[in-house]
Design a protein that fits this description.
The protein is an alpha/beta fold. Helix content is 31%, strand content 23%.
Length: 350
């Protein structure tokens, strides 16, 4: 008889596939968790539920500090017009500690289905919600992730190339594509881990077009080792982004960095990389993971952390968002990820 470790349990579980969310068949007891973000796609799930006549419960997560472009009031109007019950809870981007417990108080004891729409959520919030869900007695039973892609993801290739060329001729020119500056590198207590003094640290990060995020993480955390998971966009029209991200982050100039590649949409590729990195380095190094890639990559990080409590989550909280109305544009395909198969046991014998 042998006892499986948490990473062995997660590795052995059947990983559910991301499915097209063609219809949302919701009952009166079901919950939809939405976040009042500023992207067009943040209201897509709620609009679909209203259109299909749902009379479910909605948990609306309100962001602080307030951004004028946030769609919270639009969401509340949609719900009230359709006769949908709305509960509200506040999430402070700059003080996110403890939100997992707050979230659990709202939906944790519910025996109904819970649909979490991550389309308007920050990457750190996605991780916190997933960890909170699995800490319930029901774990991931009756839990689903909903994710809506955007129609387009600014900047386009021409705009990005022009900014990069300008920075090469003028070293004082800062490249800010989506956000500017880092408020702080956030370490949330409920997503922390402990390691003996002197243990080497390994930062696992997802480089993005906002290169200042990776720079802030390396400067603040001073990791002994570095592993980078570079995102591969699913559409051929966005393939240029992978090379551009490597260029603006100067990844070729980072010595001894371990570089891997994973789809920005297929969470399984990211989760498999994370499990392999844990198996390879987790015994001798303290792993710090920064979910700054795509939202579905953040789902993979959240699933990993919900099983592996000796992994530390770190997050470079953005100071400002540039042109929130242009962060992403339009509403693309909607996806559904059922999580029940990932409930699993923390400890089991074979």
């Amino acid at each position: 008889m042998s006892v499986q470790t948490p990473d062995e349990i997660l590795s052995a579980l059947c990983k559910p596939q991301l499915e097209p969310a063609i219809q949302l068949r919701l009952s009166d007891d079901d919950w939809i968790v939405v976040c009042g973000g500023f992207e067009d796609r943040s209201i897509a799930v709620l609009e679909k539920a209203v259109k299909e006549g749902a009379k479910c419960n909605v948990l609306l997560i309100r962001y602080e500090p307030l951004i004028a472009e946030n769609k919270e009031e639009v969401m509340k109007t949609l719900c009230h017009t359709a006769g949908i019950r709305v509960s509200e809870v506040t999430y402070n981007r700059q003080e996110p500690s403890g939100f997992g417990a707050t979230f659990s108080e709202k939906v944790g004891a519910s025996g109904a289905r819970i649909f979490v729409d991550i389309s308007g959520m920050s990457r750190l919030l996605i991780v916190q919600v997933l960890v909170a869900l699995r800490r319930r007695s029901q774990r991931f039973d009756k839990c689903f992730i909903l994710y809506t892609e955007a129609k387009s993801y600014p900047p386009d290739e021409q705009e990005a190339s022009l900014q990069v060329k300008r920075s090469e001729t003028d070293p004082s020119f800062p490249i800010f594509f989506l956000s500017s500056g880092v408020y702080e590198v956030t370490l949330v207590p409920e997503l922390s881990s402990h390691a003996p003094a002197g243990v080497q640290t390994r930062l696992i990060a997802f480089p993005s077009l906002d290169a200042h995020q990776l720079t802030a993480l390396r400067a603040e955390l001073q990791p002994s080792r570095l592993s980078l998971i570079e995102g591969v966009p699913p559409g051929s029209h966005n393939q240029w982004r992978e090379q551009m991200i490597a260029q603006v982050n100067r990844l070729d100039d980072i010595p001894n960095a371990e570089r891997l590649h994973a789809s920005t949409l297929n969470y399984q590729e990211t989760l498999n990389h994370l499990l392999k990195l844990y198996g390879k380095h987790g015994l001798y190094e303290r792993l710090l993971i920064a979910p700054i890639g795509s939202k579905m990559q953040a789902v993979a990080v959240g699933l990993l952390r919900s099983f592996l409590e000796d992994v530390q989550i770190v997050y470079p909280t953005p100071r400002n968002f540039l042109k929130p109305e242009k962060y992403t544009e339009g509403i693309g395909d909607m996806h559904l990820l059922p999580l029940e198969a990932l409930s699993g046991d923390r400890e089991s014998s074979v």
